[in-house]
Amino acid sequence: MGARPAPAALLIACALGIERFALRGRERGAPAEPVRVLRTGMGPAAAGRAVTRALAGPALRDAAVLATGFCAGLAPGMHPGDLVVAEETRDARGSVRCAGTDLLVKELVRAVPGRTVHTGPLTGSDHVVRGHERSDLLATGAIAVDMESAATLLSAVRAGERPVAAVRVVVDAPEHELVRIGTLRGGISAFRVLRSVLPAFHEWHRSLPLPRR
């Protein structure tokens, strides 16, 4: 009897070098679970291009896609190191529903005990959001914002039907605003959390009804 075919791969997309560094060396799952971490570059345009290009190749054609990295929390009471599991991503071009949200929450609680996990809409922006923009976006129902998740998932589903998700770590929030997105003094806990989330991503991938190759 031959070996069981491997499931379609998991593509984990992040924008920044510091995010890729947090995930480096941890993307390798079991041999039957191919995982690739892709650094897309900052901004929705770069994320969309990079994901479209990656999914065009045969190795990732049917891959599940998960967007991750840092985000800005919009709701009062959020803290650096909190986790955001998107129920949907949205931007001016539309919204994309995420798969397996409940399982991701469960596995993240297990992977990073003691951290608060928020669920809700994750909105996209083409710039770092500050000040009154936070309250404007919060009024739309979004709980967090980043520059790449919405573009990543929209490009992923446009390239073919597949499960998608977005998990972000809060690096700044209304009461903990950073001077710039790369400043980790206030968000060092966010970096440590991002280093711990891969087991939850693997469990999400294993749960999916993906085609086998």
What can you tell me about this protein's structure?
- The chain has helices at residues 17-23, 44-56, 101-111, 132-138, 149-158, 188-194, 198-207, and strands at 10-14, 35-39, 64-73, 83-91, 94-97, 117-124, 144-146, 164-172.
- With 213 residues, the protein is an alpha/beta fold.
- Strand 6, helix 4 (132-138) and strand 7 (144-146) form a beta-alpha-beta unit.
- Helix 2 packs parallel to helix 5 (149-158) and helix 3 (101-111) packs antiparallel against helix 7 (198-207).
- The protein starts with 9 loop residues before the first strand and ends in a 6-residue tail after the last helix.
What's a concise summary of this model?
With 213 residues, this protein is of the alpha/beta class. The protein has helices at residues 17-23, 44-56, 101-111, 132-138, 149-158, 188-194, 198-207; strands spanning 10-14, 35-39, 64-73, 83-91, 94-97, 117-124, 144-146, 164-172.
